[in-house]
Records
---
Amino acid sequence: MSRITNQLNRSKLSVSQLASAFDAIGDAEKAAEKAAYMKNRFEFFGIVAKDRRAAASAMASVARVATAGDIFAFARACWDLPQREFHYTGADLLGWNVAKLEPSHLEDLKYLIATNSWWDTVDALASWSVGGLVANHPDLASKMDDWVLSDNMWIARTAILHQLRYKADTDAERLFRYVEMRAPDTEFFIRKALGWALREYAKTDPGAVRAFVAAHEAALSGLTKREALKNVGGP
């Protein structure tokens, strides 16, 4: 841990400073509500997103001039703490600074996705950090082909969702292939992700999504189909 602490001291990305800021505005009642909503998987300070980001603004400013290594060190240190607001802040700083990330950082992101995993941090890392990194380094798309087959549902969900923000740049063939590959899965978070990815692409090409769902009617779960066609209707 000393190496990480030394990195953070150099970059002035301070977990202890962030903790003090969160402590000052935490709300015990909201913390209990948030913990219950997340099925008591995590502790919370009880801070809404707007206030959390305002409290972390000093760290966000430092991150803009910090190295990718220092930002990852900060995110890892945040991930080691129990309160979910730390995890959210680490994910925010990575997503906001995705242009600094190199292909070697994909494994660092994979660690965060597979640690303290739940949909809230996984989806942020998938759509912003992993998605941005793959967009900037297209050769990494082949890694997503491996991830989508993972037995870890959060790694697989990340691969399914990594193009969520691509719009017209979406590789539709890859998206549809992933949906076909994981369609037999009975896991709620996979079925939901398949539908969400299709629904998002439907904003760009609704006809393609309607045609795909119609052609795979029997293979897709009801949840996936409902999500996919939520805003575009049937064929």
---
Amino acid sequence: MRTLAASAALLAALATPARPLATQELIELPAEDRLLDADFEEVYRVGSVDGGGWDMFGNVAGLGFDGVGNLYILDPLAMRISVVDPEGILVRQFIGEGEGPGEFEREFAKALRMAVMRDGMVAVYDPEYVGFALFGADGEFDRTIPMGGDRWRWPILPDLQVFPGMERVLSTTSVIYMSRPDPGPRPQFRHAFSYDLSGDEAVVDTAARAWNPPSDRHAFKPELIAAALASGGVVYSDSSAYAIKFAAPDSRVTRIVTRPLRPEPITNRIKAEEIERRLESFQTRRAATGDPTRQAAVHAMIEAERARIESMEFYAEIPVLLEMRTDWAGTIWVHRRGEYPDTEGPIDLLTPEGSYVGTLPAGIALPDAFGPDGLVAFVETDGFDLPYVVVKRFRGGTH
């Protein structure tokens, strides 16, 4: 008998323009977790708090490994990319603030995004010029590649992932546009795009097309989360159920993998607690960012944000999945949500074809970057809320 989650996944697939359903393979994974050993051996960590070191990070907005295990760390507040070798020793730093080649304006720093190719080439998305700045493995500026397609809409890209062995990157969640094309109805679909950087202009293609909730004000709405596959296709999820879709390079869905794990329903208690939690978090941010020279404008922004939080809408269910990434071996890491309010649920590991490998227990963070030979990197914060980076080597097995 098909479970509720599998049925929901099937309906979600029907809502996505893709191949006719007859050619989509539906795989139902087992309901019971098969626990894996969580063997993460620390290799090194970088991040100083005394203010005197090169690794005093203001913010870590991107991590990436190259093919020899060097780690690249993007700090947009310091306006630099730091490269450390497999022992954690600084190799070089590059990019900077300014208007010259390989430099970026401070105003747009927080929206910079980085992708690291296996040969050490680095692509930095610059929203000011709506294009990618490419740097060689030596950190020297190579060229700028303007965005093709609808660059006039000012896209803001989420996290980026490189397609293995390609000069092509993926937006791992929905792309946000600063300028809507028209004031018409809300778009029916959200998109994750791929960007081919091998030419003089970035070639933009749809990697995944997903259902779009009818309102921007949903809390716990099913997000579009995607990860790159070595085939040039992607794996993604866009529903509240455990339904993972495999899309070919032309964005056609060829396979759907489900597990009979039911989404947690939204209750009045959860709604009230979530609104209160967001209001408390907003109050903290407000106290930290108040500017006496612009009190009127700040007050208007505060009231608008408060009204938005208090009137926010809730999707009927809390999505089962939080995040999804693929490592260098092609293994798919699927981070499940814990029972509300806990967000750190277990992590399922799937083969590149979608077969079930096993599950890492709850409480383990999903790595922020994957590298060769099992290297993984995590962004953590200290007691002063300053970020640092921990690099470990993962070796997992079944109990």
---
Amino acid sequence: MIATARLVLRPPEPRDFDALHAMWSDPEVMRDLGPVKSTAHSRATIARHLGYGPSHGLGFQAVERREDGAVIGFCGLKPGAPDTPIADEIEIGWMFARAHWGRGYAREAAAASLDWAWANRDCPRVVAITAACNAASRTLMERLGMAWFADFDHAIHAEDSRLRASVAYAIPRP
């Protein structure tokens, strides 16, 4: 668990499913990330991230607002995706429900995740990837101190998808 002034990042629990699935099935949230998720795909996503805990000591976390316990996003660290420039590294990522955009929650959660990585992992850097068209994520990466290091075509997206052209960023250990 990671706590900040306004947020708690913790492993997702069954009670979080509705809030997370609502976020993942929102076409506006998913516009620059990938297709909206079905119920089954949302369950599989949660299971995959919970699985990173025992295998890697990582996994994206449910982001809960401290003031009311509402789950507003998903953020954390995971193993870098194979067949990308970040394979075998520690990847940071985030996603927040649309109603919570523009309030600094993503930056707060991501900065806390980076602090956790520096305190608990012996990695030379933390990396992130996104679609080249995802201006909001790229801006946050830069605000966190990350710098671009690669362009690539992400094979999880169809060749004609606007999301296939992707970028990789990294931040070195302070």
---
Amino acid sequence: MNPIKENLRDLRISSIAMLCLVCIFFGACSTDESVIPAASDLDKKSYEGLEDVFSNTDTIETKGKYMLLVFGANGCSYCENLKNDIKHNEVLRTYLKDNFSAYYINISYNKAHTFIIGEDKETKNYIIPTHKITEMYRIGPTPTLVLSAKDGRTITIYPSYLPPKQFMALLKFINEGLWEKANGNENKLRELLQSYLQNEV
């Protein structure tokens, strides 16, 4: 079966209201003693050399842009491939920096993250540990890409490594607003994205 079709089956859309409810529930559990302090540099080592692309995960917010969360792990060869693709492809690197608030979350560590959800004065803050974030987004394989709207609402989740051309096509699909044509319909979003990825690569 076509790997794009396989991965598109796992794509999900969720509303900001659902994310906020989940954040409130999990926020109450954020005092886990095994959580690494927010100031720890452990996760920064995971994206060394890409500090101009990925922001510190102490605070995760859209900053008025689309948001990309890359979930990776220690020992994940496809995660390393993805990071190397970004390092060595200046067009991809620049496109990410210009159009996305990007974060690399290493699920091998359990760190406290402050999520800022919403836009303008309508924002809310939630402190959530890494392991609860992985539950929220149902992270399985790594890398998994989570793309969100400018208000923090999840648009789609793509659980797979994508070669540079496909990765760029996915980013353009989001940044050019093509995902909005699905009008919140998950099946329609899959169809639109599948068609776009196939035509672009």
